Amino acid sequence: MTEKSVKGGEIIARLDRIPIWSLSYIFIGILGVGFLFTFFDIFDINVSFIQTAVTLFHVSGPSSPEIGILLGPVVLLNLIGYIVGSLRLSPLSDRIGRRNMLMITMAITGLGSLYNALSNDYLNYLLARIVTGIGVGADLAIVNTYIGEVAPTNGRAKYTSLVFLFSTLGAGLGLWLGLLLTTPPSPFPLGLPFALGGSGIFATDGWRVMYGIGALLALIGLLLRLNLPESPRWLISRERLSEAEKVVSEMEGRASRKLKSLPPLPSLIPPYVTDKISYVESLKAVLLDKRYARRLAVLVPMWFFGYMTVYVLAAGLTTILASLGYPPPEAGIIASFGDIGFILCAVTIILAGDKLERSRWTVISVLFTVIGGIIIALARTNFPLSFLGSSVLFYGFNLWVPVSYAWSAESFPTRARATGFALSDGLGHIGGGIGTVVIASLIASLVSSGVTTGLAIEVFLLIALFQIVSAVIAVSLGHKTTNRRLDEISP
User: Fold this and answer.
1) What is the structure's pLDDT at 38?
2) 190 found inside a domain
3) In a domain, 280, yes or no
4) How far apart are CA 291 and CA 271, in angstroms?
5) With 90 as the cut, is the pLDDT of residue 319 above it?
6) Is 135 a residue whose pLDDT tops 80?
7) Cα–Cα nearest to 109, from 205, 221, 26, 224
8) Are 302 and 405 in contact (CB under 8 A)?
9) What is the CATH number of the domain that holds 119?
């Protein structure tokens, strides 16, 4: 055991004994603004794409089945960009640092959103979504890696979800701004009576304004991230012990001011210390160690099948409801009320996320997804029931996500944590891309012979089926990480 390894282990023990969040809460807000933008970008397409398809791609009307066909490649290529960014960019944070890469990824995401706002045909629109996806994929991996490394042992899911709460605000902003800026005014609940999408610039270019707002949010997030400290665990892994000790000392001081005294130091776990590590070495650390390779073999299919459900609903619920016979503004209103459930899922995990093993939340989540879909199918023209169903549905298909973010980050060592997260989440997103194309085609085939309540139930059960598979994989094969020290789980 080298002197540097011993010193690094002592600093990590000091970090692990802190039982509360001990960085400034401003930093949660800074990371949260980034999440707000990334999820704004994921969800802004849900409502606004109908106007984009009508005005830019010249489909026959807002209820045209062509919209679903055009949406599939858009979501698929965005997710391909996500996968590329996740697999190629986020592992660089294992090499050059979490904070540096968080600056780069936010800049890429903002440029992609600006490109979207300026695109003038389907090809450029697709390319813009790829660029944005590259930034989003890398950013989400690094943010979750960072949170996992600085959060207290008993609160990794809690603080991951606290940042995730900002993503629910971003999703809601994307949904409701889509209604405001891209749909014509309609009496509530068929739409928004004060919507701007019926005249003037918003009748044709409201969707461009949406992406322009996204670019502005990215710029704000980029400027705020200048103040983030580097992860002390990463600093230790790169032999920058004096910098790591300075950060941890500041964390101890802040925690001591809130608590009467800090707990005793836990046992020393010597960290892996090196002055540099390449992408290939990070990959080897994940793929050639049987422990981490087994975890990867569970997490990838869990994300793969789970994302098939998530992205069909996150990006396409408005389009699905329109194909089931709902007028587009009404479909958008129903989808937008889902953000209530989205917010509640983040609150649930903040309050209780660390009380159960990570895999158990996948089962709870899928139950609510099925219930929410059935409520919407049975509601038909009963708007209060539709709004309830949408909220329950969003609660269900999102509840497992922040917990699984924490789980994925916990499952790999500091020297390759971003790489391991990127492989799990990035490869898992292939399922999201496949799901949007395959499930959209299956739904189009189902509704071609006419829409009934029974058929609507079939549609939502079909969508939920893939999340059920994800939950079975997580529960039957998943490993335990809750309330254990990070370097004990993944040395």
Assistant:
1) 78
2) yes
3) no
4) 17
5) no
6) yes
7) 221
8) no
9) 1.20.1250.20
pLDDT tens-digit map of 46-101: 778 888 998 999 888 787 778 877 887 887 888 889 889 998 898 899 989 999 99
Between CA 360 and CA 403 the distance in angstroms is 10
* 87 vs 255: CA distance, rounded Å: 36
When the pLDDT of each residue in the chain is averaged and rounded to a whole number, the result is 89
Task: Write out pLDDT tens, residues 453-477.
Answer: 787 898 899 999 999 999 999 999 9
Q: How far apart are CA 11 and CA 140, in angstroms?
A: 27
Residue 162 lies in a domain: yes
Q: How far, in Å, CA of 363 to CA of 386, rounded?
A: 23
Whether residue 172 has pLDDT greater than 70: yes
Cα 364 from chain centroid? 19
Please say whether the beta carbons of 35 and 143 come within 8 A: yes
pLDDT digits (tens, 9 = 90+) for 142-158: 999 999 999 999 999 99
Q: Give a yes or no: residue 31 inside a domain.
A: yes
Give the residue numbers spanning the domain of 48: 23-239+288-478
Q: Is the pLDDT of residue 130 over 80?
A: yes
pLDDT at 451: 66
Beta strands in 35-181 (DSSP E): none
Does the N-terminal peptide bond of residue 62 adopt cis geometry, omega within 30 degrees of 0? no
Q: How many domains, in total, are found in the chain?
A: 1
Whether the pLDDT of residue 1 is over 70: the answer is no
At 243 the pLDDT is 95
Q: Residue 131: which of 117, 143, 115 has the closest Cα?
A: 115
CA–chain centroid gap for 325, Å, is 30
pLDDT at 277 over 80: no
